[in-house]
Design goal:
143 residues, 80% helix
Length: 143
């Protein structure tokens, strides 16, 4: 086991990036969930249609992904092994949410118009944070 003073700098950098990234995810979720009627009306019509027809499992997957990732980031910085499981829950939530793009009518066209960059980054970061947390545990950085 390594004591906190001897942790490599990458551990803290990854933890800070994870916290910021997942914090932005929480903000995006809350922004969508707490959107006012005026803000909703300002969205493009196609996005309004997609949000109103979105099944509850997609919204739940979004919430699970971002909140599990945020709590995992805190646990990682606190050097807790539970971070591994929470990052995995976040990854599964992201996969479920993004898989909805292939299932719900109209999402593919919407995403194609706006690009796959953000969904791809979400998956890359989720996989990366999970793998790094596993690596940190194997190195004895998490307890």
């Amino acid at each position: 086991m390594t004591d906190q003073g001897k942790l490599p700098i990458w551990f803290w950098v990854v933890g800070a990036i994870a916290l910021l990234w997942n914090g932005m995810g929480v903000y995006a979720y809350l922004d969508q969930a707490l959107m006012s009627a005026e803000e909703f009306a300002a969205l493009p019509e196609v996005q309004q249609d997609l949000l109103t027809s979105q099944p509850v499992w997609v919204t739940a997957a979004f919430a699970i992904a971002v909140f599990a990732g945020f709590v995992a980031s805190i646990a990682f910085l606190l050097r807790k092994q539970i971070a591994i499981r929470l990052f995995l829950v976040s990854l599964v939530g992201a996969i479920v949410q993004i898989s909805s793009y292939f299932v719900i009518d109209g999402y593919m066209e919407f995403i194609s118009a706006y690009g796959w960059t953000l969904p791809a980054l979400i998956l890359i970061f989720a996989i990366g944070f999970w793998l790094i947390a596993r690596h940190a545990a194997n190195k004895g950085f998490l307890r």
